[in-house]
Design brief:
Largest sheet: none
Strand content: under 5%
Number of strands: 0
Number of domains: 1
Low-confidence stretches: none
Radius of gyration: 16 Å
Length: 91
């Protein structure tokens, strides 16, 4: 495997790990003053993971599968409600 391909795979995996870390960080900073900044980084990394996944698909490399899983994890992590209290439906 050429060095350029190894570096590309490592960069794609690093972007994916940063994306997962941004989900955790954003959820931890949800009610603090740093929430807006962490949300901005989350969306930047969501875009980066999406682009890395598309590059993996285009190049025919198997990193696209982990990118797709990371996108799903980021979407669920951003929308899941961890609060314990139950709320009535809004309708």
């Amino acid at each position: 495997m050429p060095l350029a391909e190894i570096l590309a795979v490592v960069a794609i995996l690093a972007i994916q790990l940063a994306g997962v870390a941004s989900v955790v960080h954003t959820r931890l900073k949800e009610r603090s003053l740093a929430a807006a900044r962490s949300q901005k980084w989350f969306f930047i990394l969501l875009l980066a993971v999406g682009l890395a996944t598309m590059i993996g698909i285009q190049s025919g490399h198997s990193t696209w599968l982990s990118g797709a899983a990371t996108l799903g994890l980021m979407a669920i992590g951003a929308t899941i409600d961890f609060r314990g209290e139950r709320r009535s439906p809004a309708f």
